[in-house]
Structures are given as structure tokens and as C-alpha cells.
Amino acid sequence: MNEQPQMMPPEPYRQRSREEAFGPPDGTRWWPLSPRYRWYRRLVAALVAAAVGPVGAFVVARSAGDVGVLLWVLAVVIGLVLAWVAAEQEYQAWGFLERADDLVVTSGVFGRRVVIVPYGRMQFVDVTSGPLEQLLGLATVRLHTAAATTDARVPGLPTAVADQLRDRLARRGDQGSGL
Fold first, then answer.
1. Is residue 151, in this structure, part of any structural domain at all?
2. What span, in angstroms and rounded, lies between the C-alpha atoms of 125 and 142?
3. How many CB atoms lie within 10 A of CB 71?
4. pTM (two decimals)
5. What residues contact residue 35 under an 8 Å CB cut-off, 6+ apart?
6. Per the structure, how many domains does the chain have?
7. 112 within a domain of the structure (yes/no)
């Protein structure tokens, strides 16, 4: 009989908590985003509500009358409150860590995600800042690799920090034959 060897977890194996599994490596801490990022997300939600609210109320008024408009306004307000709370949760969930050989980015409120991008795999680093981000002095750093699934982004950084991070990543990528 030809028996297949069984794959065994590394020793010692123990079940880790969610905080351990998605937390920073031992002895380190996640670098947080700018606190202004939460306000950026809240402003985006308010702008969407300001645009969708009146248009939706007009459409609903034509088909469902005053009761429909009242329900629509209530739904928009509830959506805005939920977006306000979600902005705080999203801010708390983001973090990044520069290590000797790679950049680690964590994100996600309901579905946690940890992305590790080796500096040698980076093709280029991109810094962007939309109009609202510029108003708040924020920028987003994006790392691009050959595989789109390993691209990473770090939003909500102060512009000066984003520029410095871009330069450090570019230097490290050059050293690792990436960029």
C-alpha cells in the first residue's frame, strides 16, 4: 500500500485567539492611521447621505407619498449613524508595520485581513490624495506587485508621513531588487 504522509501542524500547536492571529508580531505594535481618517470616512458618508437623501425622497414621494418620504429619511439617518460608527471601527482596524524584509498591513472590521508584502516583490509605490483627503491633509500609499492579490494600501496617513513611507519603501525595494 502506498500511504500518503499526513500534514501536521508545527509543534507546539495550540489554538490562537483572533487578537493573536491578527495582531502584530511579538514585540511590535501596529502603526495607526491619522485620527483625521475617521473624520474623512464620516465626511464621505455625510456627503453621500446629502446627495442620496433628497433624490431618494423625491422619488419615494412620487410613489409612496408622505409616509414613504418619512421612512426614507429615517433610513438615511440610520444609515448615516451606522456609517459614523463604522468609521471609528474601520479606523481602529487599520495598521501597518515596517519590518526588515517586508511591510505588513492589517485591516477589516468584520473580515480581518493581514497582508505581507516582501520589499523584493514591490514593483512600484504610489501615493494618492483626493480632494477631500487633501482638505484634511491625508494621503494613501499603495504598494503594487506583479500579483494583484498581494497589492496593499495604507490609507489615512498624514501627507508628510505618506511621502516618507513611500521613500523608505522605494529604497528598500531597490535593495531587494523589487523596484
1. yes
2. 6
3. 12
4. 0.78
5. 91
6. 1
7. yes
